[in-house]
UniProtKB/TrEMBL annotation:
A molecular function (GO) term: DNA binding
Name by which UniProt lists this protein: Helix-turn-helix domain-containing protein
Transmembrane segments: none
InterPro entries associated with the record: HTH_17, SinI_DNA-bd
Domain Helix-turn-helix: 2-50
A Pfam family the protein falls into: HTH_17
Length: 76
């Protein structure tokens, strides 16, 4: 499925100007049909999968309890 720049900006939650800039920098692959750029939606799937993976890793890390320091001395 192909998206326009406006649809891609909404899909990625980015401003349209930034999407255009990324296309011109060749960081986003796009086709130009003579009138507008068309962006293949599935090229972002790996990116979103990696984001989810890192969110889960961060969640697991934040849930891990802080180990008690064995060098702490009792003040009694």
């Amino acid at each position: 499925m192909y998206l326009t720049i406006q649809e891609t900006a909404e899909y990625l939650s980015l401003p349209e100007e930034q999407v255009k800039s990324l296309i011109l920098q060749k960081k986003i692959r796009a086709l130009y049909d003579g009138e507008q750029y068309l962006i293949y939606k599935d090229q972002f799937q790996t990116h979103f999968e990696q984001l989810e993976k890192y969110k889960r890793l961060l969640d697991d890390y934040m849930k891990e309890p802080i180990p008690e320091d064995i060098d702490v001395k009792d003040e009694d």
